[in-house]
Backbone:
């Protein structure tokens, strides 16, 4: 498991890049779905690809759907890194 | 039930000569060449590439309908041109005159995301992974798809990929949709984003490109004795087509009527047109027949004329097959270069402007008469009433497409 600092910053940057938003537009409780970032199916796959390339953590489709918030993604990356 | 008459109520384009249809038109009528050095990549870094292209330098990232991360370059051009065409037509998506399922899109292109495909090939062959965006930035129907998405057009949706005739065929297909009542409004045109190393090297390998590098603005020489090929270009043209009744019901101004469409195949060779020009001339004749228009009524021909030795000769023969006296002919690729799947639609926009303004734009760089060309080439901008324009396109695969535009009637 990786430390919070080693993961959270890069994941935040990936989300910023993928969505074209600033980090202050979301926090760990922000949902990827319609109540939060409203990320579509292509973009969530793109975020997963970027996480795989940049952080070395592959998020399979069966797990991707369970990651409801930004914090869920960070925790998943910490756990599997 | 009689087919609906089809009218043009809006035009839009983005080309190397202008970010709007009227900016492009002003430069065409001034005889301005868009040909210049390549800035998108270093042509010296690639085999077969030369420092000659017509490029769009507008920054589209801030355009309200452009998402540069999601859209390939060819799609960006299409949505920009569509936004302009809709505004020109006074049509607002979601507005009072807008019934989404009665508005369709048909936007053709030659290849799709040429630059995106080239970059993906380089990445993949270098051992890198592709973005999930890659397919959606590069497949040929996404320009038509994104025009429908951006402007809430839920009617017929297609995208012909008939090479350099794609824009013309898209407009012709949209005419059918309006005539047959499948849609009240069609956003139709073509787009191309082909200024890339793979495109340039590929067309150079076919020996289709001009190698005339100085002065660059004289590189494209349609119908001239010295013609030696085309220059790659990019951009999009879009028309708003409506049934006459739909346009009248909302009080729209009719810019021109689109009265005839024709298409044919040479059925002989993938790149070389038939020597006798009969492939293209059958498309011209069928378009005129469709329009109920006699050849002698045509005031102007907006030629395909890319500036290749074979292609221009065969188009001249095709015109001679149809017209006892060939009307004045202009070759706008002398100024715009060749935007591949966007070319026919950009030229269709110019054909509408020709009818609208009574102005025939010139062919530049046609200075030496060619022994194998016998058509009256317009070399100076000419102010004259124009009631009927024929706009020709032809593409690899031996495909031909022709449109007939006429000045508005009160019918």
Residues:
């Amino acid at each position: 498991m990786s430390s919070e600092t080693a993961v959270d910053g890069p994941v935040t940057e990936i989300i910023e890049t993928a969505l074209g938003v600033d980090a202050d537009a979301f926090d760990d409780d922000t949902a990827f779905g319609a109540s939060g970032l409203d990320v579509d199916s292509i973009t969530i796959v793109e975020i997963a690809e970027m996480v795989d390339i940049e952080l070395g953590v592959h998020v399979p489709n069966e797990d991707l759907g369970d990651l409801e918030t930004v914090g869920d993604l960070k925790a998943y990356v910490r756990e599997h890194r | 039930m009689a087919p609906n008459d089809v009218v043009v109520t809006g035009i839009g384009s983005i080309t190397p000569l202008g970010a709007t249809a009227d900016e492009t038109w002003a430069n065409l009528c001034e005889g301005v060449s868009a040909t210049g050095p390549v800035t998108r990549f270093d042509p010296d870094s690639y085999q077969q590439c030369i420092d000659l292209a017509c490029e769009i330098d507008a920054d589209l990232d801030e355009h309200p309908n452009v998402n540069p991360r999601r859209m390939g370059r060819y799609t960006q051009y299409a949505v920009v041109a569509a936004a302009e065409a809709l505004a020109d037509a006074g049509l607002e998506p979601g507005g009072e005159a807008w019934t989404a399922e009665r508005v369709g899109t048909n936007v053709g292109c030659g290849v799709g995301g040429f630059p995106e495909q080239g970059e993906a090939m380089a990445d993949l062959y270098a051992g890198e992974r592709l973005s999930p965006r890659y397919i959606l930035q590069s497949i040929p129907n996404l320009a038509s798809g994104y025009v429908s998405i951006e402007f809430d057009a839920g009617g017929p949706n297609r995208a012909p990929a008939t090479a350099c005739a794609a824009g013309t065929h898209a407009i012709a297909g949209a005419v059918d949709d309006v005539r047959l009542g499948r849609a009240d409004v069609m956003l139709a045109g073509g787009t191309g984003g082909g200024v890339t190393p793979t495109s340039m090297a590929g067309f150079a390998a076919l020996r289709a490109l001009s190698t005339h590098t100085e002065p660059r603005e004289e590189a494209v020489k349609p119908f001239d004795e010295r013609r030696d090929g085309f220059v790659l270009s990019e951009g999009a043209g879009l028309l708003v087509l409506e049934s006459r009744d739909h346009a009248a019901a909302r009080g729209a101004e009719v810019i021109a009527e689109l009265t005839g469409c024709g298409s044919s195949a040479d059925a002989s060779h993938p790149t070389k047109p038939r020597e006798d020009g009969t492939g293209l001339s059958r498309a011209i004749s069928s378009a005129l027949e469709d329009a109920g228009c006699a050849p002698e009524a045509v005031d102007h021909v907006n030629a395909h004329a890319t500036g290749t030795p074979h292609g221009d000769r065969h188009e001249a023969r095709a015109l001679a097959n149809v017209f006892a006296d060939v009307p004045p002919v202009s070759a706008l690729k002398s100024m715009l270069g060749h935007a591949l799947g966007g070319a026919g639609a950009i030229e269709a926009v110019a054909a509408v402007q020709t009818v609208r303004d009574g102005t025939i734009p010139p062919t530049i760089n046609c200075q030496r008469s060619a022994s194998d060309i016998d058509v009256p080439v317009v070399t100076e901008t000419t102010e004259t009433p124009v009631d009927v324009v024929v706009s020709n396109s032809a593409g690899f695969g031996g495909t031909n497409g022709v449109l007939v535009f006429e000045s508005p009637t009160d019918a």
User: Anything to note?
Assistant: Chain B has two domains: 7-249, 260-406. The first strand of chain B starts at residue 6 and ends at 14. Chain B touches chain A through seven residues (CB under 8 Å). The domain at 260-406 of chain B is CATH 3.40.47.10 (Peroxisomal Thiolase; Chain A, domain 1).
